[in-house]
Amino acid sequence: MSTEDHHDEEDMQVLNEDDAAEEIINEDGDLVMDSDEDIFLQNDSIAYFDEPKDSLFTIAQHPVQPSIVAVGGSAGQEDDAPGAGWVIDTSSAPSKPVLPASFASNPAAQPEEGFPLQSVYNLDGHTDSINSLCFTFPKGEVLVSGGLDGRIRAWTVEANPGSPIKVSPLGETQEVEEVNWIAPCPSPENPNTVAFGANDGSVWVYTIDPSDPSNPFQIVQSYFLHTASCTAGAWSPDGQMLVTVSEESSLYVWDVWGAAAAKGLVGDNGMSIIAMTGEDQRFEVEGGLYSVAVDPKGTFIAAGGAGGAIKIVSMPRLSGAAAGGKGGKSGADSAGGQILASLHAQSDGVESLSIVLASTTPPTLLLAAGSVDGSICVFDATRQFAVRRNIVGAHEEHSVVKVEFIKDSWTLTSCGMDGVVRRWDLRGTTTAGTTAADSGLIKEWKGHRGDGEGGGILGFVQGQTGERIITAGDDGVSLVFEA
């Protein structure tokens, strides 16, 4: 018999026929899992959308009809899987009834599934993942998507109360290899305008004409001063200026509509009002900048980056600014650009920033920062950016992906790679707490897989009031939670 035949015979005799039905006794007394045993996974959602087959990277909410939401991501696990997106209407999701006391004592008695949502429209045409979405201001007439394929695609949206939603393809354009982010311009004088930043550092501003399918994209401006990937952007509250940051630690404030130029406030490069780079050691953030926000009063910029660094920079001040306005430089005008503070209360990258003018007398200006180290730090801008609340482990050891204040309130919503949405009350003066409850935790919602196993939450929307929170999950599911 050959050696090869000998091994084949041994392999065939690994399991003895008499042993096939042998019962294995656990002599150590450990319990053997019963396959019929129920495993309860907490799901606090009132509705779900599970049509996507892979991660959802981005989510956007209609500015007039908040029940209308768009989500986007990858269509599948394959390397060449195209990007995909969906428009859903969450208004059909019924509110969760108050559960009887017996349910509280027996969680397994709760309904296993919420209300299933269906796609109103599928967003096709991208050849790689959709990683950014927005509805244009002020009426949400256009839905815009950006992808890792460098494409910008647009759809017209008709959303009238009492009528079915109508979504129609409008067109596409491509100027770059990858789109990193898209932000709608809030200027009422310049409707249906968006800005986006790319992996090559370029920044683009388009106005989209929903009435002209033959040529809907009109380039307003394009900027090329960043020398590395443009990682984030934010408009000033009036939509006159655009702030962008890059992973090479630069920050620019762009004079998109010429209001600063009319007052003689544009810098030597002829394009930006403020130009700050890592060459200035006071501004340098080793590892780059990855998040940016402008306060509701338009007085300062917060730029967050690697290592927990946050730079606070004064915004330009344009008295009576109007797009295309003329007139000389006023005594109240200022080019801004002063470094007001350098904050460093967290140990890892600042991925998300949110600023609110909370209702007090006088009003309190709060800045919240979410970090990769799992913490949320809240600074009081009215007290020289003193730390008001440092929530260490807000999402345990998992990254905080997004923080967002409910408008004009002390209430902050956050999500993380732990797959949990949490809401915080930031009133009071506690600077730190040993537990989430000590730090102002009001409520939390679970339902995504989380725990760093591809089930984190990569974004959420909550409207103006925060009554409903809708998520985009890395597990390919969008959930609707009710406050």
UniProtKB/TrEMBL annotation:
SMART domains for this protein: WD40
Coiled-coil region(s): none
Source superkingdom: Eukaryota
Biased composition (Acidic residues): 7-22
PROSITE patterns membership: WD_REPEATS_2, WD_REPEATS_REGION
Region annotation (Disordered) ranges: 1-22
WD repeats: 123-158, 223-256
Keywords, in A-Z order: Repeat, WD repeat
This protein's record includes keyword Repeat: yes
Protein name from the UniProt record: Putative 60S ribosome biogenesis protein Sqt1
Biological source species: [Torrubiella] hemipterigena
Species classification: Eukaryota, Fungi, Dikarya, Ascomycota, Pezizomycotina
